[in-house]
Specification:
By secondary structure, this protein is of the alpha/beta class. The protein is 29% helix and 24% strand. The strands form four sheets. An eight-stranded mixed β-sheet has the order 7-8-6-9-13-12-10-11. A seven-stranded mixed β-sheet has the order 16-15-14-17-18-20-19. The longest helix has 20 residues. The radius of gyration is 27 Å and the shape is elongated. Bound molecules: S-adenosylmethionine (SAM). The site of S-adenosylmethionine has 20 residues, from helix 7.
């Protein structure tokens, strides 16, 4: 911060105020209760620094001034620009980039598993609440060179963690390590944790509590070769799960992936969205949430940014209020979801209720071929069939994929058809020429979202190609 605090003149202001709950400090080494009223002091040059208990007015000494400066530096983290990395699952970064730009941010770089931009932790709050395709929103604290775990420790024990982590508090450490000296990432996590604990114990005289549950503050280490970077993970549990789904069903899609695949389609968010083989309903539910501009932040109550020193709940509540106001009504929105399993439809309906979109989706139990496809205006038909991960399943599925092709030809004229599959050989059995093959990835499988332009009766120009997709 570069402030010469020994030269500052301290004088108390007349007005005492109650600060937001996360604003706190210590007086003469004693930690103040967060709910105690605090006063504002003018510390010269027109700057205002926030501290302390009204009873401490006459007792301000160098020690308390130093505490103020810590607090100021901590508060500025929420409002000072720094590098932000937003991670996502492989191949969904283009859709994440689109979302981030739509929120008004400038994306500096897009890479395979995320995007980079500049912003504050208050910006991170907004990003956490709004993004459908993200996994983690990371705010960079420090970059350094490290060849060994001891280098990591030495760099981090010198970092002022007392400005970041509240006392008392709980934190956990996660890491992404690609370094030849580390074959067990748990060891890297442990060195990070040791450094933070040792620093805090030295500064505060107490040991913070730590653990692997991502329910409090989270510190993340990225270490590739000799380059290390340490972040505040402002998300905690992954954002890729959107929180509403209670019953997973058979081979459910991850919500962030489902959202990204929908953003990859040509859907205008108004025309019919037909989703046979809906399983637990993820795709239909995400479609309803996208059409109504309902953001994932509305379903989740805990984020790691809430457990950092200086957290201002008012910023979060204001963003929640904005999200609530932004929800739009789409008159005549038609989302149809079917599955031949009645259990799947029971789960999908419950999940849609949890997401608050049950009244926007028409569910029914039927073979995919019997799904109602509204005629006239065109729309989107989106299917995620099984792709036969077990031996012997494939021959049965070949018939299903061929039937999917026939269904699209016969019933989906005027629509764009999308088939999301992890089996490119089976996809060939659809027998129609794909207009686009958009690359995706589930946790382990290379997948494609096949796009078919399905002309109506008057323009039946589709090609039959059994060996080409
Ligand atoms: C891979 S799962 C879909 C998962 C879904 N995307 C989700 O996120 O939950 C495939 C679904 O297709 C359904 N299914 C398979 N064959 C079907 C058929 N002939 N007609 C209708 N549904 C079928 C299964 O019951 C299963 O729920």
């Amino acid at each position: 911060m570069g402030l010469a605090y020994s030269k500052l003149v301290i004088k108390a202001e007349s007005q005492y105020i109650r600060q937001p709950s996360a604003m706190w400090g210590s007086k003469n080494g004693k930690v103040l209760d967060r709910s105690e009223p605090h006063a504002i002091f003018d510390v010269g040059k027109g700057s205002k620094y926030v501290l302390f208990d009204s009873k401490g007015v006459g007792l301000v000494n160098t020690h308390t001034i130093r505490c103020k400066l810590y607090l100021y530096s901590n508060m500025s983290l929420y409002t000072t620009n720094g590098p932000i990395t937003i991670t996502c699952h492989k191949r969904i970064a283009p859709y994440l980039e689109q979302e981030v730009k739509e929120l008004g941010f400038t994306v500096e770089e897009t890479f395979v598993t995320g995007v980079r931009l500049i912003g504050t932790i208050n910006d991170c709050i907004r990003l956490n609440l709004n993004l459908r395709c993200a996994s983690q929103v990371l705010y960079s604290l420090k970059k350094f060179e490290a060849n060994t775990p001891d280098d990591v420790y030495n760099n981090l024990v010198a970092y002022p963690w007392e400005n970041i982590l509240p006392d008392p508090g709980y934190f956990s450490v996660t890491s992404n390590v690609l370094n030849p000296t580390i074959n067990n990432t748990m060891f890297a996590n442990l060195r990070v944790k040791d450094a933070i604990v040792d620093r805090l114990r030295e500064k505060r005289g107490t040991r913070p509590s730590t653990g692997s549950e991502l329910t409090g503050a989270v510190i993340h280490l990225f270490w590739k070769n000799e380059q290390a970077e340490v972040f505040v993970d402002t998300s905690g549990d992954s954002l890729a799960r959107h929180g509403y789904r209670k019953i997973p069903g058979r081979a459910p899609m991850l919500e962030a992936l489902a959202a990204a695949t929908i953003l990859a389609t040509r859907w205008d968010r108004v025309s019919p969205f037909v989703n046979p083989m809906c399983g637990s309903g993820t795709v239909a539910i995400e479609a309803a949430l996208i059409a109504t501009n309902t953001r994932p932040g509305l379903f989740r109550l805990n984020y790691a940014f809430m457990h950092l020193q200086g957290y201002d709940e008012a910023v979060y509540l204001k963003e929640m209020e904005t999200l609530d106001k932004q929800i739009i009504d789409v008159p005549g929105l038609c989302i149809i979801a079917t599955d031949y399993s009645d259990m799947a439809i029971v789960s999908a309906r419950k999940n849609a209720v949890a997401a608050g979109v049950a009244d926007l989706i028409k569910f029914s139990v039927c073979d995919f071929e019997d799904t109602e496809v509204p005629q006239g205006a065109g729309g989107i038909m989106f299917m995620n069939p099984e792709y036969g991960e077990r031996l012997g399943e494939e021959s049965e599925l070949e018939v299903t994929y061929k039937r999917i092709g026939d269904f699209m030809k016969k019933k989906c004229g005027g629509y764009f058809g999308y088939i999301f599959t992890g089996n490119l050989e089976l996809a060939k059995k659809i027998g129609l020429k794909a207009k686009r093959r958009i690359e995706f990835y589930t946790s382990i499988i290379d997948c494609r979202l096949m796009e078919y332009e399905l002309y109506d009766g008057s323009r039946r120009t589709m090609h039959h190609q059994d060996d080409k997709v």
